[in-house]
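task queued by scheduler; priority normal; single chain, no ligands, no partner chains; default sampling; output format set to structure tokens
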Amino acid sequence: MTVLQARSVSKTFDTTDPPTPVLKGIDLDVAEAEFLVIMGASGSGKSTLLYALSGLDRPTEGIVTLAGRDLTGLSEKEASQMRLHQVGFIFQQSYFLDNLSIRDNILLPALKAAGTKDRSVSRHIDDLLERFGIGHIANHGITEASGDQLQRASICRALSVGPQVLFADEPTGALNSSMTEDVMDAISSVHDDGTTIIMVTHDPVVAARADRVIYLRDGELIDELHLSRVTETETRSKEDELQSWLSANDF
């Protein structure tokens, strides 16, 4: 079943002279529980497409629907409520409040979404912190956590409301290879739970975790590659397949 759909999505930035077209008539269907990765060279429109699909930004033209609901027709208040209740976000930077503990940074938006101070919300957050291996630093400050731990906290925050789709923009871009693997293991476990994931990355090793990779060039979707689920011992061949496909697209 299709959970997210884009039709003729275009985006032009009018702040330049002449205006700059960034997305050009993108058509895309994302299936429920799919792990989709968006790739392309710098400036190809990857993040712009992610923001348009997630409702963080409005396309200049075209329609984006989430679970059959037209996001492009929402008021600002409706769009804010949709983002609060239906989608989750992980960015390259964590964007936490320095004056709050890690736990409180996750708990407060969850309480806002729930509209209640029911203890079940707190228990849910504590369960997430334990699941992703950061329960022992729940009461630590943001500056006391590593980049890996902060990205795990970002995953907890994104999952706190049970989103239909989890959006991630270069979530491992600032991490070393060991931290990247840990964070991607965590994100992959979310996918295994049945959550739809749409991610932008420049890293082929990260992209090899996906079910499907789409490739943008100059704001146009020019190719896609479907990747089968593999065992851990077959991961290298999956990465090789992706690398070959990216080379064919001049990445």
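post-processing summary
- The CA atoms of residues 73 and 204 lie 35 Å apart.
- The longest strand covers residues 2-13.
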